[in-house]
Amino acid sequence: MQEIVIHVRQFPIFHSEYIQNVFDYYTLTDKEKKLYQKVQDALYRLTTVDVPDDLLEFFIDQKKFSPSLIHSISFQQLLKNIESNQVRTQISSQIPDFLDDSIAVCVPAKEEVITRLQRVSQLANNGPYPEFYYYQIPISEEELFTTKQGYKKIKEEYLPFLPYLDLSKIEFTNTDLRNIDFSDTNIEHIDFPTAYQHSITGANFQNVNLFGKQLENIDARGANLCGTYLAVNSDSVMLDGAKMDSSILLLANDRVIANPERQGFSFIKTKKSVKIHF
To answer: How far is residue 153's CA from residue 196's CA, in Å, rounded to a whole number?
Structure first.
């Protein structure tokens, strides 16, 4: 029996995701397009919540329903199961977190690297200038991440020691960035458009130099963006509870907001400090 999760979004689909779905749809054959539409109509008939269709998305056996999914599962069988009531449905307002799939095999962090990081962390915390110890330990992408369903996730063992790892060469594409403390790290290659679930909720990027990068079409609620020098498109970024300071360049309608605080945005005052790293 197939499982269908009906997820009620808090906001409509991001434009970038919509464009990708349009591209994927037009790569289908005419027969596949008709089948996709039939399945989509059948899924909407399963819903009992009174919300606009734009706020609904579906997960079939932990896979998000989209035109590209037709190449991964049998839409004919899915349609048959829906019509014969051979499906188990549930409605959720929480985004299904399928990255935490216990079936996936996780390779543990290297004990030798963890031991070195613990020593460096101890030296840093016992000294007057902990920043002198930042970025000391090199690490590879293969060692830093586990990969689940096409997305990368930092191994939990490394999370307390991120400032002491040299992350300057690491590609943070297709990565789960939510609720991670990246503060005071030397990340350079971070691709926000490919972030898992288009979200950086709860992430801490304080004092990470992200000059030249722009946030748009992303959920940044509760994120700390202080000292990042990011450009933030306020039209398409969710900023409830986000921390921002004067380093942030806020945009609206592709124009700079000259006095963001007068328009209801909340900026915090942060101390400016110069840190020297070796």
So the answer is: 9
